Amino acid sequence: MGLIDELIKFDSQVLPSSFVSIATRIVNNTPTHAAILIRHKSINYLHHFPGQSPPIVEVDFNEDGWYVYKIIDHQKNNCL
Fold first, then answer.
1. Residue 26: inside a domain, yes or no?
2. Is residue 7, in this structure, part of any structural domain at all?
3. Which residue, of 28, 43, 44, 50, has the fewest CB within 10 Å?
4. What is the 3-state secondary structure (H, E, C) of the chain?
5. pLDDT for residue 80
6. What confidence tens digit (pLDDT) does each residue in 5-54 have?
7. What gap in Å lies between CA 49 and CA 29, rounded to an integer?
8. How many structural domains compose the chain?
């Protein structure tokens, strides 16, 4: 199974209302950016780390081209 099999399009209806995940932006079938995506009570926070300080945080960002790579299992860790 390759990476493409593990990606979930961000605007998918199957995403939970609260989660923490690793995300990537794909343009023309090429990953162009990575971020940490946090959704808490259906509000989205996209954390970018572009090499400057502090990191950029977007609230309810434009989700075009964004895919969720891995949702962290918060049930076991009680982080949300």
1. yes
2. yes
3. 28
4. CCHHHHCEECCCCCCCCCEEEEEEEEECCEEEEEEEEEEECCEEEEEECCCCCCCEEEECCCCCCEEEEEECCHHHHCCC
5. 46
6. 677 777 766 788 888 888 888 888 888 888 888 889 888 898 887 666 77
7. 22
8. 1
Residues 30-62 as b/e (b if ≥16 CB within 10 A, e otherwise) read eeeeebbbbbeeeebbbebeeeeeeeeeeeebe
Of 68, 72, 76, 75, the closest CA to residue 4 belongs to: 68
Q: Which domain holds residue 52?
A: 3-74
80 lies in a domain? no
Token readout for 54 is: 């502090």
CA distance 58 to 37: 10
At 47, which amino acid appears? Answer: H
Count CB-CB contacts under 10 A for residue 20. Answer: 19
Contact 8, 14 (CB under 8 A): yes
By residue count, the chain amounts to 80
Amino acid at 14: V
